[in-house]
Write a structure and sequence with these properties.
Layout: E1 16-21, H1 32-35, E2 41-42, E3 55-62, E4 74-82, E5 84-89, H2 102-106, E6 112-119, E7 132-148, E8 155-163, E9 169-173
Antiparallel strand pairs: 1-2, 1-6, 3-4, 5-8, 6-7, 7-8, 7-9
Length: 176
């Protein structure tokens, strides 16, 4: 018998980007130009590590036991794809358009677009054709002031709720 497969592990520490773009022609094949658009923003170093990220939970449904059954089985039920509470750095004294306010200004209440997650490539490497990403359509609620951290580590921040309003595209290649 051949040796079983063992895929290499892929580290993500320092190798994950979260990029926000307002429009995509096709979320299943985002183009290099769309992912690198000047209207977009790489928020990888703006959002805090503890920030909420898109997730999925799938119900496992237990079949109804029938009178003569001695075993009961399960099946897959509804899947919920959800956003979360994003916590991001915010400088309340920064000038409009500055790094400390760019994300806050880009996502007023009701803003929508796409969060693009790229993993396994050094954070400072520009997105390129052939790299694989996850694409999440998102809608944002209002931002609200808070602090991230406590006492000596506390930083000025904002929280914002975001939702995933429709189908996501997982592990799709960036097109040329």
């Amino acid at each position: 018998m051949a040796e079983p497969l063992r895929p290499n592990s892929v580290g993500t520490f320092g190798k994950t980007n979260w990029i926000f773009v307002t429009t995509l022609a096709n979320k299943s094949a985002p183009s290099v130009a769309e992912v690198n658009a000047t209207s977009g923003l790489d928020i990888s170093r703006i959002i805090f590590a503890s920030s909420g990220k898109p997730s999925q939970s799938t119900n496992r449904v237990t079949n109804e036991r029938r009178l003569g059954d001695t075993k009961v089985y399960e099946r897959i039920g509804v899947s919920n794809v959800t956003g979360g509470t994003m916590t991001y750095a915010f400088d309340p004294q920064a000038a409009s358009g500055s790094d400390g306010k760019k994300w806050f200004e880009k996502i007023p209440e009701g803003a929508s677009g796409f969060l693009i997650e790229r993993k396994g490539i050094a954070r400072a490497t520009a997105p390129a054709a052939g790299q694989f990403v996850n694409v999440y359509p998102v809608e944002f609620g209002p931002s609200f002031p808070t602090d991230s951290g406590a006492e000596e580590s506390a930083e000025s921040a904002m929280t914002v709720e975001f939702s995933i309003p429709n189908e996501v595209a997982i592990n799709v290649a960036i097109a040329a």
